[in-house]
């Protein structure tokens, strides 16, 4: 694939040079025999057709890089296991490389380094979709296949993979929170970053669900969206501040995998267990204790290993020239019948969410 991109670029340069020479030469060139022109045109067309067929067929030997938000978050450590599994099953050079911390500038640099290495495809979980637009455009302009996960608003990507419909997932988290709150009381929402497209879509879906189904629940108007910086300590500190500032606050809906655990810690420390509640996304092993002691009744998530595998699988299908359409199978549970989101020809949604409770938290293995 790299060779094909290089050949394409060289052909483009040669064509441009030929046109420039013709333009500079004016009418000094000798007339060309029409028959020779026809032969040359036909041969060129056949050559382009053959090159197109070769590119569409794909050689199956690709270098694919998956770029998470950061390389240390347990969520993305788990994602790497799926990436490694895909590499083992296919024999291709597929690997994960992320920044040392959740930072859009650092993530952009990782992507820029991969462009310089001339990889065939890059799969990204964007920290900030807007901030990544320029570097992802650079990648696509270089002929690199770009796919994203949790980046439904990303413009410079060929396709974005979502484990599920984001609004539906947010509604599902809200259902869990509402059950814990007795379907009444004051609540707010927490996101990892206010720039994170998926987190905000989940939160919006949760709020819409509460408005539709739980008339006795009220969103905290003064602070309807709180940012945790994708950090458990920040989530804990923010929750403490909120609970002290708003004594009537009864529920906090989290989205980042650090939100609900951080909020649960604040609830425990302030002696508000069974009075204030939280629900959100979280890893099983990291949250076993707070589920078993009742600090959180349920957490939801999708397996990040499956998402990493699915990104690599989608990139391979694109490189092979396969059609990406409703029903596309990315080879892993929850991603075997992907459908385009309503009104989109870019965002693919699966059905990959799972629920974690005290009863099943030890069954997942991660």
Describe this structure in words.
It is a single chain. The protein has 366 residues and is of the alpha/beta class. Helices cover 46% and strands 15% of the residues. The protein is built from eleven helices and 14 strands. It has helices at 2-25, 34-57, 74-90, 104-116, 129-141, 166-181, 197-213, 232-245, 259-269, 288-292, 304-319, and strands at 63-67, 93-96, 121-124, 145-149, 159-162, 185-191, 217-219, 225-227, 249-253, 277-281, 299-301, 339-340, 347-349, 354-356. The strands form two sheets. A seven-stranded mixed β-sheet has the order 2-1-3-4-5-13-12, with helices on both faces. Strands 6, 7, 8, 9, 10, 11 and 14 form a seven-stranded mixed β-sheet that branches. Helix 3 (74-90) links the parallel strand 1 (63-67) and strand 2 (93-96). Helix 3 packs across helix 11 and helix 4 (104-116) packs parallel to helix 5. The longest helix is centred in the N-terminal third of the chain and has 24 residues, at 2-25.
